[in-house]
Amino acid sequence: MPTSFPLRLLQLLLGLFLYGMGAAVMIRAAIGVAPWDVLSQGIALQTPLSFGVATNVIGAMVLLLWWPIRQKPGLGTVLNVMLIGPSAQFGLWLLPEVHGLAWQVPVFVCGLLMVAVATGLYIGARFGPGPRDGLMTGLHARTGWPIWVVRSLIEGTVLLIGWWLGGNVGVGTLAFALLIGPLCGVTLPLFGIRKPAPATVAAP
Length: 204
Fold this sequence. Notes:
Layout: H1 5-29, H2 35-46, H3 51-64, H4 75-94, H5 101-124, H6 131-143, H7 147-165, H8 171-191
């Protein structure tokens, strides 16, 4: 995989754009979306904000929570907050909502695969985690709780709030929760950029 800064940056930007588009595809499938997207949907329904702007606002608020747990954002973290929302909003503008399970299920699967590939791309570029992933790993480091417990508590909380606000919770939400981990287990090694090996000094 590319190791130069311009190519890594290109990989990061491609991953963030694809992530937003994947979220939009799953939304258009209308059978449930990822927990954080449920929250964005709920906020968009209850405020004048669009889904994309709500996603940006949530990302910025989560990033503020990094300060008390002493997490340090990278370039990828900041660009994640700025770019996924507009990408998702563009996808919602571009794509129509689909109807009928014969279309909804394959469209959702397509969106899920796009998000998995996008996650491998933007994390693999090594510019820092997204704000939500950083919150999870930061709380894990500070509390000592298992990572799955921290993730379950965070995503369960945002899912309940988003559902209460009117976000779309459905079978797709469950499918996302069960499948995104194994899928990213494939895409992260596939797109991960290895750090260059340290130079060795030849013996005289």
